[in-house]
Design goal:
The chain is an alpha/beta fold. Helices cover about 35% and strands about 20% of the residues. The protein contains ten helices and nine strands. The strands form two sheets. Strands 5-3-2-6-7-9-8 form a seven-stranded mixed β-sheet, with helices on both faces. Helix 9 (about 210-220) links the parallel strand 6 (about 195) and strand 7. It is globular, with a radius of gyration of 18 Å. It starts with a helix and ends with a strand. The relative contact order is 0.15. The mean pLDDT is about 90. Bound molecules: S-adenosylmethionine (SAM). The site of S-adenosylmethionine (SAM) has 21 residues, from strand 1.
């Protein structure tokens, strides 16, 4: 059950903007604004990851991460995020994929990008009754605060028409969501995965100690030869790179670590032996 008084108190009353509050260094927290669309090149990432048939755990983010995993043939996809808003954004998108055509889906994103809240968007109004009740309630009760980030909406931010046809067949329910920060994720898991996608999280508070603890904790929930995409970024910079380079020793009993680089990504991939 969400405490909406508490959730709204995370936003400045006058501006409606999120006020970093100290949880997890401030920027990301229980009600921090979700991204409307991913700022990652998920097509390129999925081409590298080849998740066909894989059981996956991914950060929910904008909701695009699990959606693109399904697009590229993942079997079951579970999600987690420190922010509850990521779940709401993900639920709206998954329900929309099942009920709207591609033009309406894009129109909905466009509307969300310009409206004051999802509740005002005509395409959302047509699907709200089939949206999970807790997400419907969030959208209703948080109206008037900026609980998602606008901007960055380009034509390739949303699935193309041919991709949408695939999603219509493969996204047939809401994704399981675990509301947790990454540091406590392992304790909330009760099954094993082929891939864990922890994209764009570990650059905040990146130390060998923290990263190796998180990786070692998650190891039990990885299938043999399973992979953890410990970090995905447009580029790694000094501290992160040094941390990932030192990680091999910390996880050498059960995994090897490799750095994968392409034009759009740096990935630190940990593969179970
Ligand atoms: C850093 S943001 C960047 C946006 C992301 N690249 C996308 O495409 O949506 C990634 C996501 O990680 C979540 N996040 C950040 N720190 C986290 C943490 N410590 N534990 C769990 N989730 C976290 C944020 O709430 C956000 O949804």
């Amino acid at each position: 059950m969400i405490d909406y008084k508490l959730a709204r108190s995370r936003y400045d009353e006058k501006t409606g903007l999120f006020v970093p509050n100290g949880d997890n260094g401030g920027a990301f927290a229980a009600f921090s604004p979700a991204y409307l669309v991913s700022n990652e090149d998920l097509r390129s990432a999925m081409n590298m990851l080849q998740p066909h048939g894989a059981d996956v755990l991914t950060v929910a983010g904008s909701g695009d991460q699990p959606i693109f995993y399904k697009l590229y043939g993942a079997n079951n996809v579970d999600t987690f995020d420190i922010s509850y808003v990521a779940k709401v954004m993900m639920d709206v998108k998954t329900v929309a994929i099942q009920k709207l055509n591609n033009g309406q889906y894009r129109q909905m994103l466009n509307g969300i990008n310009t409206a004051r809240g999802i509740a005002d968007v005509p395409e959302y109004k047509t699907i709200q009754s089939i949206c999970p009740v807790d997400s419907q309630e969030f959208i209703h009760k948080m109206h008037g605060v900026e609980y998602y980030l606008r901007g960055g909406l380009w034509s390739d931010s949303a699935p193309f028409a041919s991709e949408y046809d695939v999603l219509k067949k493969s996204v047939n329910g809401n994704f399981n969501f675990i509301w947790t920060d990454l540091d406590n994720l392992a304790g909330r898991l009760n099954k094993k995965y082929d891939q864990m996608y922890l994209s764009n999280i570990l650059q905040y508070g990146c130390s060998v100690r923290r990263v190796s603890r998180i990786a070692n904790d998650l190891a039990d929930c990885l299938k043999p030869r399973g992979q953890i995409m410990l970090q995905v970024s447009p580029y790694f910079i000094w501290d992160e790179l040094r941390v990932y380079e030192q990680l091999g020793r910390a996880v050498s009993k059960w995994a090897n670590v490799r750095m994968v680089q392409s034009k759009t990504h740096c990935m630190c991939v940990l593969r179970k032996l």
